[in-house]
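Hi R.,

Here's the chain you asked about this morning:
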Amino acid sequence: MSQHTSRAPDWGTGTASRTSGTTRWGDTGTGRARTQRTRARRWWRRNRMRLLRTWRRWLQTVTPTGWFVLGIVLLAATLGATLGWVEAWFVAIAAAIVLLVALPFLLGSRAYLIRLTVDRKRVVVGGAVQLGIDIENSGARPALPATAELPVGDALREIPVPFIAGRGRTLIPVPVAADQRGVVEVGPVTLARRDPLNLFHREVTWRDRHLVHVHPKTVTLPPASAGLVRDLEGAASRRLTDSDLSFHAVREYVRGDAFRHVHWKSTAKTGTLMVRQYEESQTARAAVLFDANRAEYASDEEFELGVSVAASVALQAVREGRERFVASAWAPGRLRPSIDGLEELPSGTPQQLLDAWAELEAAEEARPIERLTRALAESRRPLSVVTLVTGSGPDTSRLRRAAVAFPPDVAVVAVRCERLADPAAQLIDGTWLLTVGALSDLPQLLLRGGLV
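And here is the predicted structure, written out as tokens:
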């Protein structure tokens, strides 16, 4: 097996240059001294960075406890030499013996080539990811058992490495449960050596690492539930245009009209050029606005229910090919908001959208839902239906004030996520108010309310 960079340990980066040449001097003693000094300078230039890296590496192996014991050795030896205390010399010798006994635990090296693999980099909440640590002993000597450290998110797992013969290889499976939505960083693998007293600590780290996106749970919605439009061409509006699909009437020809729109039968009857006039058809432009304010949710489980509801509606819009705008309350420190107080989530493909929902975090001090809807309405986006998803905090009056911010020709659906609540759907002043207690209630509420 070739020594790939991802399988070799990370020893740090550095540059080294080699120069060669020949300098001839006379046979005098001065010439020989100059030759030796020149060779010494060349050797120092070639090995200076290597020696400095080795020195820093050895300094990093000493733990705080080791520095404390080393300080005791120096202090006790100083007191014994200056004041003649026998007790101080005894303490210095005892501490030095402890240091010498701990040093052999750092000797030796393991010629490991390690590669970290994952069976998939995207998983739904409640699933599992199977990791694999592929370890090869590239040396001819056998490697004794050891313990490797593998960071998995915020946790650190200790992986026992078995005995590996010379030129041997083993694969250690490591199952990881995806219990929470988010992005989990796995790796790098670190192999540590330490003495029983933890005076010295030596680590070797491999570069290989992976990011695992844990997607929220979603549910399949009925067709057209994301856009509330039943026809494929779009709904005819009251705006008139000279070119579209929905025929309205004929009118007299005006200079500049295209001759391809001339209605020849009406022209023959009236003796005047008549052209067709159309009603502008409008396709469903859906917007999904998620209230990421943590204060509006009673618990973390309720917040995750809201994420799943919003992700399901947005995913349905992507699958149906709707023109869409998916946004959430902007959290400081994340991406720059495209609209005041809002953060637009990328929704080019279902995978890209679900990755964005996996990365979404709760905003501790976000703007209220009324201001978020006003910001979306003032952005002058051509919308036909807006889905608001929030928690159990906002009451009916607040949701009505939030829906008033949009024009009358925009359909607004407000979804209150209240965990374990009875599902309900009611129409209040032209706004559908849905109460969702579980994710499975959403398709039934859309059908019951006649929204599809």
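One quick note: Residues 1-5, 13-27, 228-240 have pLDDT under 50 and may be disordered.

Cheers,
M.
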